[in-house]
Specification:
The protein is about 50% helix and about 10% strand. It is an alpha+beta fold and about 160 residues long. Helix 1 packs antiparallel against helix 2. Bound molecules: FE2/S2 (inorganic) cluster.
């Protein structure tokens, strides 16, 4: 059994787990996936373990934008595209990210490191324009600062690969 499916088994086996465990299971499986998504195999296993239909698992996964049914990069770069961030300079930040990563919104870099996504709000309106990489928020960004953040991730990964 894969690590992610063991995670699902653990969630379902937890005291009080039931149908409400579905979203939790989807998020846990996605977190455990190196490609940041919920595979068809995982959907089947979740449906089996929770005793619900595959279509219900799919519809729940499709409803929540935070869950992906397609492989993505190791790091998810989310940029807020709502008005407060728009007014604070989001367009320049987005253009810089697209140029630095070489992909548009919804795209994944060829090396599989980053997926760039637009979201309606990151809950960080007080520091617009904002982005979130995985679980880390970055706010009050300029185009240059956003590019520096991406380069820092690359450098840290490169160091990790050579260590
Ligand atoms: S509007 Fe951009 S973080 Fe809320």
């Amino acid at each position: 059994m894969s690590t992610s499916l063991q995670t699902v088994t653990d969630i379902v086996a937890a005291p009080g787990a039931g149908q409400a465990a579905l979203l939790q299971a989807l998020l846990a499986v996605q977190d455990a996936s190196p490609e940041n998504y919920v595979s068809e195999e995982a959907v089947n296993e979740i449906a089996h373990l929770l005793g619900i239909s595959r279509s219900r698992v799919y519809s729940t996964a499709s409803f929540y934008s935070v869950i992906s049914l397609k492989p993505r990069g190791r790091h998810i770069v989310r940029i807020c595209i709502n008005a407060p961030c728009e007014n604070a300079g989001k367009q320049a930040v987005l253009a810089a990210l697209e140029q630095e990563l070489g992909v548009g919104l919804g795209g994944t870099t060829p090396d599989g490191r980053f997926t760039l996504e637009g979201v309606s709000c990151l809950g960080a309106c007080y520091m617009s324009p904002a982005i979130k990489i995985d679980k880390q928020l970055y706010g009050d960004l300029t185009a240059e600062a956003a590019v520096a953040v991406i380069r820092r991730y690359r450098e840290e990964e490169n160091i990790g690969h050579t260590a």
